[in-house]
Structures are given as C-alpha cells and as structure tokens.
Design goal:
Elements (H helix, E strand, L loop, with lengths): L7 H20 L3 H22 L12 H15 L10 H14 L6 H23 L2
C-alpha cells in the first residue's frame, strides 16, 4: 500500500483544534498551557501553508520546528510574498514563549498568555484564509 502524502487540510484542522485548546486553557486560567497550545496552532498552520505551496520537509512527513520556523518566513513571506511581513517573526516569538512556559522555572501570567493567544488567532486566521484560496 502506497502512503499518500498529507494535504494542507489535515494540518490546518490540527491548527484550528490547537487554537481551540488554547482558548479553553486561557478561559480556565491555565496560562502555561495556553502558550503551549498557541504555539502548536501556529506551527501546524505554518506546516499547512508550506504544504499548500507545494513545499516538502527534508525528511518524509517530518516537519522539524527549526525547518518550519526558517522556511515559512523565507519562502512564503520573503520569496513568494503569500503572507504579510508582520508575520515574519511570529513563529520564533511564540516558540520562545512556549519554551519559557514548558521548561523554565516561571509561571506564565495572563498578559503573556493573552498576547500569545492573540498572535495565534491572527496567524491561524491568515493562513486559513490564504490556504482556503490556494
């Protein structure tokens, strides 16, 4: 049996579900979890965008975080101009917040979680609109 390559809709669905999870975590004042889910919403949306543009990961079906953080802005913002420049640093910024939330000895507070959630809403939204028209 030949395995079919995933399409962007699968990753966009994952992004939307991660964003919904971030919303729930925020509503329950679970701010570290909010940031974690917000990052994964952006990451999955970026993978959906890359696939929609016909790009592939360096290893079959494996999109490393580093690869996605480099390729999304380089290929889809700078080179192809599919997304606004304002999203160029989004993945790296929210990734750095996720590292703090998951690994550092600090508790994320509501303002930081809300900022991450706002970034994720905007990023997933723009990718959803763009991929929907691809």
């Amino acid at each position: 049996m030949v395995q079919q390559a995933p399409n962007s809709a699968i990753y966009l669905t994952k992004a939307q579900k991660a964003l919904a999870g971030a919303e729930l975590e925020f509503a329950h004042e679970l701010y570290n979890n909010t940031v974690n889910r917000a990052y994964y919403a952006c990451y999955q949306a970026a993978v959906a965008a890359l696939i929609a543009e016909g790009l592939t990961p360096p290893m079959e079906n494996f999109w490393s975080h580093d690869h996605v953080q480099v390729e999304f802005p380089a290929r889809l913002i700078d080179e192809r101009r599919r997304y606004p420049r304002e999203y160029r640093a989004t993945l790296k910024a929210i990734f750095d917040e996720r590292l703090k939330a998951d690994y550092e000895p600090e508790i994320i507070r509501a303002p930081s979680a809300e900022a991450a959630l706002d970034l994720a809403r905007a990023f997933v939204g723009v990718v959803s609109r763009t991929v929907g028209t691809a």
